[in-house]
Amino acid sequence: MARNNNNDNFMPPSPGESLVAETIVGHSVKIEGDLVSDGDIKVDGQVTGKVKTSQNLFIGPTAKIEADVEAGNATVAGKISGNMKVREVLAILQTGNVSGDIDCGKLAVEEGAFFSGKCVMNVHNGYKTKPVSEPLPDEE
User: DSSP for 83-98?
Assistant: First the structure.
């Protein structure tokens, strides 16, 4: 099941499984503006603006998002054009398409997924990582 109160063990929904969400944007819905919630969000429609939740976000395969996205955890099966900031786990599924920069804790990308942008992973085993300013010397 997708819902898990322990964000470290968040698993995206399996194909055919639905995310139980507080807010659902159906496939025929188009939102122009900000979509902000403290609960889980599932988007199957279109959003232009900003999408923000401190909880779980599922972007369904029919979704088209032209927005910056912030979430506790996120699973992308649709299309996102915008930057993403995900505190814990970001999973880009086989049908997922992300065009924008990613800032996340952990990243999972299925074979066939599309990603164009830069990615910064800020948490590794609970510790903040530091960007490498110089290439590491070759080991001989």
Answer: -EEEEEEEEE-TT-EE
CB burial readout 113-135, b (16+ within 10 A) else e: bebeeeeeeeeeeeeeeeeeeee
**Count of C-beta atoms within a 10 Å radius of residue 106:** 16
Task: Round to whole Å and give the CA distance between 26 and 130.
Answer: 40
Looking at every residue in the chain, the average pLDDT score rounds to 82
Distance between CA atoms of 114 and 124, rounded to whole angstroms?
Answer: 23
Alpha-carbon distance of 96 to 67, in angstroms, equals 15
Structural domain boundaries of the chain?
7-115
- Asked if residues 67 and 46 have their Cβ atoms less than 8 Å apart, the reply is no
Dump pLDDT digits (tens) for 76-132: 999 999 999 999 999 999 999 999 999 999 999 999 999 999 999 986 545 455 554
